[in-house]
Design brief:
Number of strands: 3
Distance between the termini: 36 Å
Mean pLDDT: 86
Number of domains: 1
CATH class: Alpha Beta
CATH architecture: 3-Layer(aba) Sandwich
Oligomer: single chain
Radius of gyration: 14 Å
Order of helices and strands: EHEEHH
Strand content: 15-25%
Low-confidence stretches: none
């Protein structure tokens, strides 16, 4: 899919749950600012497992995963995005789950 930057709409998924929530929000802010400076339309989305309404927004072209820790890096969110056939950044659910599991990734 090839879309001009000025027409591309990106949802930056940030926040999440757990101890790394604050750093995730900070990362999301940095990513949002950088994408806006690059000329993209950006939506900042603080999501949690019980609040993912942004995934229903048909105007979003791509979801930028900027979550850290559980739910963001462990494959859970990636599996939800895959199940909904949504385009997103980063590794898929299997690779994310494996990388998050320090024992399995040795």
């Amino acid at each position: 899919m090839e879309i001009e930057n000025s027409k591309l709409k990106v949802a930056v998924l940030t926040g999440g749950i757990g101890e790394e929530r604050d750093i995730s929000l900070q990362s999301g802010n940095y990513v949002t600012q950088a994408l806006k400076e690059a000329g993209l339309k950006v939506v900042f989305a603080d999501i949690q497992p019980d609040n993912m309404d942004i995934l229903k927004d048909d105007s979003i072209d791509v979801f930028f995963v900027a979550l850290h820790g559980k739910f963001g890096e462990d494959g859970q969110l990636q599996q939800i995005l895959e199940d909904k056939s949504l385009i997103y950044t980063g590794s898929g659910p299997t690779a994310s789950k494996l990388a998050f599991d320090k024992l399995a990734s040795k």
